[in-house]
Structures are given as C-alpha cells and as structure tokens.
Specification:
alpha/beta; two-stranded antiparallel ribbon; 9 helices; 43% helix; 19% strand
Length: 204
C-alpha cells in the first residue's frame, strides 16, 4: 500500500525527501568576564567565566547570542552541531564553558583551525594574522578591550565584537575550504600560502 501511495506523490515532494540533509556547522567564539591575571594565570581558564558566546549557524544563516545566564543553552546549541568550527576553541573556549556543561565538551565533533595550522607549521599564528593576510580583514578590537567593556556593563559592544570574531572565523574557514590554502607572513616577511584540507565531509 505504501508503494501505491508513493506512485501518486508529486515529483517535487519526492525530490525534497531524497535531497541530502545539509550538516549543521556552527562557528563559535566567546568572550570572558575575567583575564588570565584575574584568575591566577592561564592554568585557570576555567575560572574566567562566560561574558558572551556567539554561534553562527550554517542552516539558518544567523547569529545566536548567549549571555552568562544562558550558558547551558549555548552548550545545548553546540551539541546540535554536526561540526563545531572555531579558532583555539579546544584549548580556550571549551575550557571556559566546561563548568556550565553536563558533558565533556572535548567530546563534541570539533575542528579547531589553530590546532590544524600549528600542526602544519610547527608554531602558532593568531586569527588576526591569518585573517589579515588571507581575507584582508581585521578584528574590530581585542580581548583586553572586551574585558573593560564587561566591567563597564557595555554588553552590547561585546556582542558585536564577538559576532565579528565569529564572522572572521567562518570566512577564514570557508576561504580555506574553497581554495585549499590560507595565507600568512613568514618570519622573513614573505607572504606564504599554507595548503589546508578543510572539506566538511572529511571533518565530520
């Protein structure tokens, strides 16, 4: 009987059903309430506390913003991803957020561009450096400014700053995915192309 009903189903509906579902990729960044100095050094990242977290969702093409009291909702959002993409997300962002999570965030399917680039080059490069040479884009501020904004209660400014960081993270990843390289400046001052293999189907 099911097969008979299928015969009368409009062709366009069949096509919709059979179309492969696009994986949800979430581009993620967060800003903290406290600096490393305020929590006793970089060994205490877990004490820095969430100020603002921003996710850009590849399915709805929108930013999703989470404040301190919404940390658990941020964790739930990250859990919905087929892949989380970030820059230093494994070493920093997840460590900040971990106290608010009921799961080990390291278990999430994650691609950290910093980890991949350091593995290839043998040294670290900042997001700002890579974005500047690859996209001709710069961050709008820095983490120290964001910390002062938090102290001043200027949460809206932190949100906009974090959104831009997420946009830069997303655009750098997509550039590498589409072109197979990102650019950086060598210690001798020469602009170099670093080959990358950032195809979603291989990372998920």
């Amino acid at each position: 009987m099911t097969e008979q009903f299928d015969l009368f189903q409009p062709p366009e509906e069949k096509a919709v059903e059979k179309a492969p579902k696009e994986p949800r990729v979430l581009y993620f960044d967060l800003e903290t309430q406290k600096s490393a100095d305020e929590v006793g050094g970089w060994g205490n990242i877990h004490l820095m506390k969430l100020a603002v977290g921003v996710v850009w969702d590849s399915l709805d093409k929108q930013h999703h913003v989470y404040l301190e009291h919404e940390a658990k909702a941020l964790v739930d959002k990250l859990r919905s991803a087929a892949l989380v993409v970030g820059f230093n997300v494994i070493g920093f962002d997840y460590t900040v957020l971990q106290p608010e999570a009921s799961i080990d965030l390291q278990d999430l399917k994650t691609f950290d561009m910093l980890v991949d680039i350091k593995k290839k080059l043998g040294f670290r490069l900042s997001l700002d450096h890579l974005a500047g040479h690859t996209l001709n884009a710069k961050k709008s501020a820095d983490g120290l400014v964001s910390l002062q904004w938090y102290k001043d209660g200027k949460i809206d400014k932190i949100v906009e700053y974090c959104k831009q960081d997420v946009n830069v993270t997303r655009d750098l990843f997509l550039f590498g995915q589409e072109n197979g390289f990102v650019r950086y400046q060598s210690r001798s001052g020469k602009t170099m192309e670093l080959p990358v293999d950032w195809k979603i189907e291989q990372l998920i």
